[in-house]
Amino acid sequence: MMADSGLPVLALALVFGLAIGSFLNVVIHRLPIMMERDWLSQCAELRGEVPPENERYSLVVPRSCCPHCGHQITALENIPVVSYLWLGGRCRQCRERINLRYPLIEAITGIAFAYTVWHLGLTPAAVGALIFITATIALIAIDFDKQLLPDDITLPLLWAGLLFNAFGVFTDLKSAVLGATFGYLILWSVYWMFKLATGKEGMGYGDFKLLAAIGAWTGWIMLPLTILMSSFVGAVVGIALIVFNKHGRDVPIPFGPYLATAGLIALFWGKPLTKAYLGALL
Questions:
Q1: Which DSSP state fits 62?
Q2: Which has the closest alpha carbon to 230: 214, 251, 246?
Q3: Angle formed by the axes of helices 151-165 and 7-46, to 10°?
Q4: pTM for the structure as a whole
Q5: Which residues of the chain are under the pLDDT cut of 50?
Q6: What is the per-residue pLDDT across 30-68, written as a single tens digit (0 to 9) for each?
Q7: How many CB atoms lie within 10 A of CB 132?
Q8: What confidence score (pLDDT) does residue 282 get?
């Protein structure tokens, strides 16, 4: 059922989403670096060494700059999507190309925010869906880049799902708890069966936590649909990459992006899809 949201509200949601998308670009780039620095410090401590002293590096410090020439990005150069078009997709200082992913993340987030408000209205469900969208976009991009699903995102996402469903926003609390539990255990079981059979690791622990988070938001009944959709899309994309020589057979393909995308579909359209799926089987 579509919500009756006025054009000004949708425009505000679009602008807010564009701004969040700009921040997500920072998270996607910096969070893995922050984690790597933290791991190196912990390893040094375990070896009894003094951790290396690094300049302060966080999501807000230092200021964003061009990776090629170090030119600091000004406020006018940091307007989501608009600045990219104004600059012609190039750094104003050195004229090197700016990665197209930056405006794409901003545009996708903005459109997703506007759609969510149009679809769900100004409701608690819309607030929850916006949180879910924000987290999953970051996870998709980071997993594509680094084959990593950070606990700093997956675990808060899991707890947020349980919190929203404590008030029955998307499903009842019992279904959410079972969804989180079964979501983790299903992929955990697949991981160990594959490892015992082949001696190799077929997926990472982050995938378990991501499916647990999806289960916490959508409930246990959406898990079969989520796994089916993510497995199908992942297999199709993986085979296509190998066939067209875009990906080596021995190079692992991240499963998180397909899992997160399936989770988004389940959150918005899971109930009618599940009814159609069950109806086709009966």
A1: S
A2: 214
A3: 130
A4: 0.91
A5: 1, 282
A6: 999 999 999 888 888 888 888 777 778 889 888 888 888
A7: 25
A8: 45
- Buried b or exposed e, range 215-250, using 16+ CB within 10 angstroms: bbbbbbbbbebbbebbeebbeeebeeeeeeeebeee
| Helix pair 151-165, 124-146: axis angle to 10 deg | 160
Q: Are 87 and 119 in contact (CB under 8 A)?
A: no
Burial (0-12, 13-18, 19+ Cβ within 10 Å), 50: exposed
Two structure tokens written together for 158: 């899991």
Torsional sign, CA 180, 162, 137, 153 = negative
Rounded CA gap, 262 and 211, in Å? 10
Residues 6+ apart with CB under 8 A from 93: 66, 69, 71
Half-sphere exposure of residue 161, counting CA atoms within 13 Å on the CB side?
34
Joined together, the tokens standing for residue 263 give 């989770």
Three-class SS state of 72: strand
Tell me if 150 sits within 8 A of 142, measured CB to CB: yes
Residue 226: CA atoms inside 13 Å, Cβ hemisphere, count? 33
Residues making up the chain, counted from first to last:
282
Angstrom distance (rounded) from CA 93 to CA 81: 18
- Measured in degrees and rounded to the nearest 5, phi and psi for residue 139 equal -65, -40
State residue 251's pLDDT score: 64
Cα 120 to Cα 3: distance, rounded to the nearest angstrom:
5
